[in-house]
Amino acid sequence: DGQVDALAALKVKQPGTEFRQQVWQAMRLITPGAPVTYGELAQLAERPQAVRAAGSACAENLCAVVVPCHRVVRSGGSANSVQRTGNYLYGAGTKTALLEFEAAHAGS
Fold first, then answer.
1. Closest listed residue to residue 57, CA positions, set 43, 41, 46
2. Which residues touch 62 (CB under 8 Å, ≥6 apart)?
């Protein structure tokens, strides 16, 4: 119904290294409608040099949508391009739709 932060209240537990746990926690802090780059995610996880590892944590996320890896985008390309959106477990089209939905409902 447009409450883009409703899933933030759900508790999540998934297996992973300490670093991946940090990255997944950082993903849950990303504001709906305000995606960050993989580099920014690495900084949020307090490991600014671990950009590729942060990307791997996104790829290994078993709780997509609740742990919002769709809010992490590439730094290159224009704002609405497939090159910027990057990969997503459920496809780039789904990722784009989620990002657009959150942008339209952020602050509602």
1. 41
2. 14
Catalytic residue among 44, 50, 66, 69: 69
Which residues does residue 73 pair with via DSSP β-bridges, in sequence order?
37
Residue 58 falls in the annotated catalytic set? no
Residue with token string 């409902």 = 105
**In this predicted model, what pLDDT tens digit does every residue of 40-89 receive, in sequence order?**
999 999 999 999 999 999 999 999 999 999 999 988 755 555 566 777 88
Count the Cβ atoms, other than its own, within 10 Å of residue 75: 12
Domain positions in the chain:
16-105
CB 35 within 8 Å of CB 99: yes
Structure tokens at 99: 């990002």
Average pLDDT, the chain: 88
- Tell me the CATH class for 16-105: mainly alpha
